[in-house]
TrEMBL record:
The keyword Coiled coil does not apply. One of its GO terms (biological process) is programmed cell death involved in cell development. Residues 19-96 form the O-methyltransferase dimerisation domain. This is O-methyltransferase domain-containing protein. It catalyses: (3,5-dichloro-2,4,6-trihydroxyphenyl)hexan-1-one + S-adenosyl-L-methionine = 1-(3,5-dichloro-2,6-dihydroxy-4-methoxyphenyl)hexan-1-one + S-adenosyl-L-homocysteine + H(+). The keyword Ion transport does not apply. PROSITE patterns: SAM_OMT_II (PS51683). Signal peptide: none annotated. Residues 121-326 form the O-methyltransferase C-terminal domain.
Amino acid sequence: MISNDDYLMDIKDRDFLLEVAIGYTKSISLSIALKLNIPQLLQSGPKSCEELAKITNTHSENLYRLLRTLSTIGIFIEDEEKDGVFSNSRLSLLLTNTSNSSWINNIYLQSHPNVIKSFMYLEKTIETGESHGMTSQGFSSAWEMFELDTKLKSYFHNTMTCFTQDEINTILKYIDFNEFESVVDLGGSTGVLLKAIAKSKNGIKVRSFTNFDLPHVISQNKQDCEDDRYSDVSGDFFILDSIPKADCYTLKFILHMFNDDKVLSLLENLKRSIDKNGKVYIFDHIVQPKNTPSAPFYFDLQMILNFNGKERSVKEWKDVIDRSPFKINSIRVLSDNKRMSLIELSLK
Ligand SMILES: C[S@@+](CC[C@H](N)C(=O)[O-])C[C@H]1O[C@@H](n2cnc3c(N)ncnc32)[C@H](O)[C@@H]1O
């Protein structure tokens, strides 16, 4: 006879597996509510579905069913007395803050229709070993998709900047930039990392800070840094001799976007520019430990789908660096945030 404990466990397992199986209903429902700007529309106060449907040009009953579903998980609140009247909940109110320094940009990024759609091509990606998340949607790469959708592009770059702002103190804690003459941030996006190092006492002796990124990113950067040691330089780090010379390089959330062959080609290029006593700091996700929920495992699937990239374990980092002109001086799983690693390299 099945015990009561086994029975309860069975129900728990069944509910958990069902939750996993229908996870897409939540992300797609959220995605549509964001696309229709429902959180913003409710900022001025509660609204009925009829009003919302008129503004958003949607079907009022079906919109009601969407919002009713989201309100069961705390996104929006349906009025207890009046059916079909919604107001913002604590969570949906957070979704109205899309300023460029807010982590909410990441929610808009992850629930963007094109990002969700890319997962439809996971099977093809696993079957073929090629990234299909972007190409099967008609984009040559994720960068082209960002080029064509400026809103999505700003969600992406704002998310990255926001991550960097959260991590700057950790970076400053572990690296003494004053050991170096010149620091180049490869793929530095808005330049937030170097601007912060330049401002801190940890970067006081450095003579130059170069934020290096693709032309379409650099051309959008604000010229707001008053420190004349700082400059924005555009280029492509895969093009031979395009990397500015320096004795310190930072690569933050860069190598995870590329497969091992591309990482090796970037490091070969870097070898031609780095001072012989120079150091490279890789700040990236780390997948570990096994069998434990961890966001980088999810990002790893995004990487193969959308960038042909890879989130790496300690062993995978060691394997790829071993084949490059560099050696690992230290690899540190950051204690304040176990999802991140800081790897220091120098020439072999
Ligand atoms: C994931 S973002 C990381 C941005 C920044 N390092 C951070 O952590 O916030 C990757 C950056 O690499 C840049 N990038 C991609 N390919 C590049 C290339 N071939 N040459 C230079 N920059 C590149 C992208 O434009 C983007 O800004």
